[in-house]
Amino acid sequence: MFHKEGKTIITVTLILAFITTDLAYFLLKDFEWLQYIIYATALFFVYIILQFFRNPKRKTSHSNEHVVAPVDGKVVVIEEVYEPEYFKEKRIQVSIFMSPLNVHVTRYGLSGLVQYSKYHPGKYLVAWHPKASEENERTTIVIENDKFGKVLYRQIAGALAKRIVNYAKEGTRVEQGKDAGFIKFGSRVDLFLPLNSKINVSLNQKVKGAEDIIANL
Question: Strand order of the sheet with strand 89-98?
Fold first, then answer.
């Protein structure tokens, strides 16, 4: 199963791969070794694109008392910080870094009402850069849950990511684990949680979006 955001890129990649291998077959008959190199290269690029846009089904444990991982990746930050855009107070930040080979679907970490959703143009620093959260292209979304309160998550573009897709619209109700958007070609997501949250993950831990629990009340 592949994400709808990859439909055009997957189609174009398959067409280009077909044309390239077809031309190699007819024009390079005297260079069989080169044909095999071209075939392998085309197959590799098709595989990478399909891997990147895959959208596996996930079994979410629904609860208003925990926040699930919004994306697949590795936990690279767990710390108490000052959040300047929306809360303007201290929060617990948990950041998840996605490599180009991770599933890049963004999912809602909890159910609730979207109170804030804003896009910010910016730079394309590497996603693990300390200033990426404030200077890179990004979207900031705040969801208010009846029990957990307000949780902010931020989609951040990386050095390779050139487009962030965000489905969250202010005033709409969203469901934990459902598709919230997509970040193309490598990036990270920051969560800003209430200070009384009990963090359920550790640094360098690999997490699975919509399934692994990041924090409990």
Answer: 173-174, 112-120, 138-145, 149-157, 187-193, 89-98, 73-83, 206-207
Which tens digits make up the pLDDT trace of 78-108?
999 999 999 999 999 999 998 878 888 999 9
Write down the residue that tokens 């590799």 correspond to. 44
Its pTM stands at: 0.85
Tokens of 130: 């300390």
Number of H helices, E strands in the chain: 3, 14
Count CB atoms within 10 A of the CB of residue 22: 10
Alpha-carbon distance 21 to 35, whole Å?
8
The answer to whether the beta carbons of residues 97 and 74 sit under 8 Å apart is yes
Q: In terms of residues, how long is the chain?
A: 217
Count the Cβ atoms, other than its own, within 10 Å of residue 50.
14
d(CA 153, CA 145): 13
CA distances from 110 to 66, 114, 126, 160 (A): 7, 11, 27, 28
Tokens of 161: 């990511």
Task: Tell me the one-letter amino acid at 99.
Answer: S
Question: Cα–Cα distance between 130 and 114 in angstroms, integer?
Answer: 27
Q: Pairing state of beta strands 89-98 and 173-174?
A: unpaired
Query: 33 φ, ψ to 5°?
Result: -60, -35
Residues marked active site are found at 187
The encoded tokens of residue 64 equal 């208003």
Decide if 77 contacts 93 (C-beta within 8 A): yes
